[in-house]
Amino acid sequence: MKITSLLILRIGLGINMLMHGLVRIPQLQEFAEKTALTFHGTFLPFPLIKLFLLVLPFMELATGLLIIFGGKWSRNGFVLCGIILCLLLFGTTLKEDWNTAGLQLIYMIAVAYGLSLYNQDNEKSTAEDR
User: How far is the C-alpha of 114 from the C-alpha of 8, rounded, in Å?
Assistant: First the structure.
């Protein structure tokens, strides 16, 4: 089996997202409460923030699994990951946490690159089938 950059990126990003979810789920209430408090002083209502944070680990876990599974699953995972990152980036910049925002942008670049590689592989496969 030829190891490609897409496979390496899928495994790395997939594990990262999967583990973000897995480690938070056992301490879900504590994670949501503690993180929601960091939004004090923003215009976002506490119940909305807490609800998002209660769902976030499950979305991260699902995203990681989709990316790792490969094929069309990974495309859906990359798209979902991009949406999650946009939401996280919005909240992070609202808090003016620029260091974390910079890290999130690196993740976004990885997701965009993954989608680009997926599309290239998919176009190549389609062209070879003709």
Answer: 10
Q: Number of folded domains in the chain? A: 1
Q: In the prediction, which pLDDT does 70 show?
A: 87
Contact assessment for residue 109 and residue 103, using Cβ atoms and an 8 Å cutoff: no
* Close Cβ partners of 127 (under 8 Å, ≥ 6 residues apart): none
C-alpha 14 chain-centroid distance: 9
Question: Which residue range forms the structural domain that includes residue 111?
Answer: 5-125
pLDDT bucket at 52, cuts 50 / 70 / 90 = very high
- Please check whether residue 130 lies inside any domain of the structure: no
How far is it between the farthest Cα atoms of the chain?
A: 58
